[in-house]
Structure formats: structure tokens, C-alpha cells
Amino acid sequence: MKKKLIMPDLSTATHWMNQKVTRERLLGAPTLIHFWSISCSKCKAAMPIVQSIREKYRGVLNVVAVHMPLSEADLDVNEVARVAAMHSVTEPILIDNTHRLADAFGNRFVPAYYLFNAGGELIEYHMGERGAMRIHKAADRLLFH
């Protein structure tokens, strides 16, 4: 796990969709930040799991999506909006076309899932195909202790 990661500043996003969020606004409640890309089939396959986490913990857990482009084709903000709508991504979406957010997280992978406690400290990190299920279990442990 990424040792002692504190939730980075989110203001380096190049665009915001659904709602603009700041690190300061997220502090005070646990937060799940998930990295995805429109060209990532594993990301799209995991979206229903992320949606179930968002719905199950609505009002208790902040959920934020970060779109991390994997190629030039992924830089089209309108295409990101279209794919997000297709997959019912209603949480705030931060678009990271310069990879500054990914760098701040030390992230190189999609899908990737970061679960922070209310103080902004990373408590769980998972990536890949099974990452969404693992982060769901971690959210259950955190919120149903």
C-alpha cells in the first residue's frame, strides 16, 4: 500500500464535471477516489460496483471519479462526458488531462481505488479488475466497524 499518503490537493484537475470539489470540502467524511479512463474496459466493467458503493453510502462517503487519459483520444472532454453518462457516473468527475493529479497520487494505473478516512489519510488502496470489490469490502469495514 502507498504508505502515509494524505489526500492530495485536487485543484490541478483540468476540468470538472457534475460538481467541482476541493480537498477541503471532502475532509470530515471518508472519501473514495477512483481513477478510470474512457478507453479502459476494466474501468467500465467495474462502474456498477462503484455505483453500488456510492448508493449504499450516500451521505456518509464522498465518491469522486478522476478521469486519467491513456492516449490522445482520451483527452476529448465531450467524449468523457458521453461515456460517463452512458455508465451513470454521477459523482464529481475531475479530468486529469495533464496527469498532475495522477502524479500527486503516485498513480499509474486504471482502474485504481483510494479510500481515505475523514482526516484525509489513505487507509486502503487497490487497483485492477478486482480492486473495486476489494475497496467495497474496505468501505464496509470502515463504515460498519
UniProtKB/TrEMBL annotation:
Pfam families named among the record's database cross-references: AhpC-TSA
Keywords: Disulfide bond
Location of the Thioredoxin domain: 1-144
Signal sequence interval, chain numbering: none
Name listed for the protein in its UniProt record: TlpA family protein disulfide reductase
